[in-house]
Automatic annotation (TrEMBL):
Compartmental location: Cell membrane
Predominant cellular place of this UniProt entry's protein: membrane
Biological source species: Paracoccus benzoatiresistens
Name the UniProt record assigns to this protein: MFS transporter
Its membrane topology: Multi-pass membrane protein
Domain Major facilitator superfamily (MFS) profile: 215-435
Amino acid sequence: MLGILCNRTYRHLFAAQVIALLGTGLMTVALGLLAYDLAGPDAGAVLGTALAIKMVAYVGVAPVAQASTDQLPRRPLLVGLDLIRGAVALCLPFVTEIWHIYLLIFVLQSASAAFTPTFQATIPDILPDEGDYTRALSLSRLAYDLENLVSPMLAAALLSVFSFHNLFAGTVAGFLASALLVLGVRLPVARPGPRSGIWDRTTRGMRIYLATPRLRGLLAINFAVAAAGSMVIVNTVVLVKTDFSLAEPQVALALAIFGAGSMIAALALPRVLDRLSDRLVMIAGACLLAAGTAAGILVGSFGVLLMLWLVLGFGYSAAQTPSGRLLRRSAHPEDRPALFAAQFALSHGCWLICYPLAGYLGATVGMDGAFAAMAATGLVGVVMARRVWPSDDPAAVPHHHPDLPADHLHLRSFGSHDHHHHPFVIDDLHARWPT
């Protein structure tokens, strides 16, 4: 897996991702402490609102930002967005009002909503071989899981020496280092998309996404992932501290075990995907998530919770890590940024629904009811994925173009009206999937 790091451009981008994630992890810890400093016992409500603002920015800003910046060169765009994020992090230690937090978080997460899809869409152009790209996806998943493990430990070490305000300096340093690493390489020039109005460019990724059966299946799997993941992220602290009467170290341990399960799957996936289809692996992962969430009703001890969280972490990674392969396969290179932005917005839309649902159910009907409801939600996602994503999902699909003249370049390139067969993606000539 580490062989792809021999590619200098990818190595720089991966290092930029890891360092920026560590900085973001430090900011997460510092933001919680800042909220408590400003709001005291109401800090949870402040953080919940900040998380909702983050998701709204991700869902609403990503497609618009991509459409507005699709003609800009990638390297200065990514560097500029890193600098914006660093500037916002630099301002956070000086806030004195809660609304300042909300405003700065919206600006920072809006920049991230533009940065992340552009970054993700660049990797397939750097690593055109599907095997290499699969390994890059697994490394990216590992980076996210390591951030969940390392950032809290690093924050704890720094807090033993400095005040929490200094953690924001680590965030600024992370974004600056990311900008320098991106600045140090030459990125492939993005193929320009079709010239059209801003509304058409904003909605193009969504239209391609929702017209492609395998991506409609991916959306259903995103929903199953969010249903199970929200139970872990939102309710771990309640389960550990209230149900089992344990302390903060055990909360951190439970979340670390979830991350460990995800890392195990990420390490295994490149070899698994060489033998099994993306559909089989991702639906199996989603089934594991739904079944594991239902099994939460039976958890009676902290040890059993840890085993369950390990299983859920494995399913979490298996269900979502291959998604980049589906996106890469489902669009022309010039449409990939729009498609990655659509995936970014739609997947976070699933989390925007499931985060408050998991928290509300846990608080009102109890954990057993929350586990049952979120398991049912995940099962709906699995059933929909199986229905809308055909098991026979070839890249090349026979189809017809009765509206094109016989001498059209597309027909001359790929065959006649009656014998037309090529790798099929949604574009200006193929507005609908063949039935």
